[in-house]
UniProtKB/TrEMBL annotation:
It comes from the Eukaryota. Pfam families: Ndr (PF03096). This is Protein NDRG2. The lineage of its organism: Eukaryota, Metazoa, Chordata, Craniata, Vertebrata. Belongs to the NDRG family. Contributes to the regulation of the Wnt signaling pathway. Down-regulates CTNNB1-mediated transcriptional activation of target genes. May be involved in neuron differentiation.
């Protein structure tokens, strides 16, 4: 039998009152597909990659990532890495509305802008953190520039192009729903939207009253016209770096992330399924995601001396390892969070981590 380790995640620590935020420097560079704006926090650390983020549709880097990177326990991480937060074209604060007929870049072209950013900053490698459309963009970049990507944290990734049934459903929804409503349905579960919590009210207001809503619609259209990434386990097209896939339980993209997990290299991929986190776990559960990110970085050989202050041994979770039945294939590591007891997913035995909180 495999060794068991029990883990519990307890209290969360927001940014302390009076804690001074890092100084930010915002830059814009021209690329073959237009200008792109990004914000840099911190200074480059010798022999360490930059943490490089890309946000989802309907958001910008602040509304997508600020709750996560301002979380108290995250400060230990960001002190050890320089950060680059990219705003997709036209999504930055104060961005002018693109003229009528403007050809917005495809997601592939947005990925092709990233080398221009890294060249401008003279950065050689990154650890990417992307949500939704941003997760797709970073994955596309990693496929074409694998030597520059040390790791990826992909939240709510859908690597598949829309099939004809998806397109039909999308068109039908477009007849009865506004663009903001469709984007909110992409970001959050129907249960969350019906509950209309303070968080949902905040982001409903952000999307509905965005001064650059026309630009957001262009980014939304590019996302819906994405190509299939064509991941294939054991095939030529796959992510070469360590990957942590993240999705909330009952989130809109849960099935897509589960399918993505089945297509990636099981020896390089961890799967984090978070309960009670909704469609945007980086907003609703920044503490738990921070802890998982620390483990991910430690697995890559960084922050080996980091103290996991909010993790303790308990009965609520287990780390289970077992050899594969056929001796050749092992199942990917799965980090699954539940509000009650952990449950080891069905399927061939492999390397599985279950966390309850």
């Amino acid at each position: 039998m495999a060794e068991l380790q029990e883990v519990q995640i307890t209290e969360e620590k927001p940014l302390l009152p009076g804690q001074i935020p890092e100084a930010a420097k915002t830059h814009s560079v021209e690329t073959p597909y237009g200008s792109v704006t990004f914000t840099v926090f911190g200074t480059p650390k010798p022999k360490r990659p930059a943490i490089f983020t890309y946000h989802d549709v309907g958001l910008n880097y602040k509304s997508c990532f600020q709750p996560l990177f301002q979380f108290g326990d995250m400060q230990e991480i960001i002190q050890n890495f320089v950060r680059v937060h990219v705003d997709a074209p036209g999504m930055e604060e104060g961005a002018p509305v693109f003229p009528l007929g403007y050809q917005y870049p495809s997601l592939d072209q947005l990925a092709d802008m990233i080398p221009c950013i890294l060249q401008y900053l003279n950065f050689s490698t990154i650890i990417g953190v992307g949500v939704g459309a941003g997760a797709y963009i970073l994955s596309r970049y990693a496929l074409t520039h694998p030597d520059t990507v040390e790791g990826l944290v992909l939240i709510n990734i859908d690597p598949n192009a829309k099939g004809w049934m998806d397109w039909a459903a999308h068109k039908l929804t477009g007849l009865t729903s506004s663009i903001p409503e469709m984007i909110l349905g992409h970001l959050f579960s129907q249960e969350e939207l019906s509950g209309n919590s303070e968080l949902i009210q905040k982001y409903r207001n952000i999307v509905t009253h965005a001064p650059n809503l026309e630009n957001i619609e262009l980014y939304w259209n590019s996302y819906n016209n994405r190509r299939d990434l064509n991941f294939e386990r054991g095939g030529e097209i796959t992510l070469k770096c360590p990957v942590m896939l993240v999705v909330g339980d009952q989130a809109p993209h849960e099935d897509a992330v589960v399918e993505c997990n089945s297509k990636l290299d099981p020896t390089q991929t961890s799967f984090l399924k978070m309960a009670d986190s909704g469609g945007q776990p980086q907003l609703t559960q920044p503490g738990k995601l921070t802890e998982a990110f620390k483990y991910f970085l430690q697995g890559m050989g960084y922050m080996a001396s980091s103290c996991m202050t909010r993790l303790s041994r308990s009965r609520t979770a287990s780390l289970t390892s077992a050899a594969s039945i056929d001796g050749n294939r092992s199942r990917s590591r799965t980090l699954s969070q539940s509000s009650e007891s952990g449950t080891i997913p069905s399927g061939p035995p492999g390397h599985t981590m279950e966390v309850s909180c």
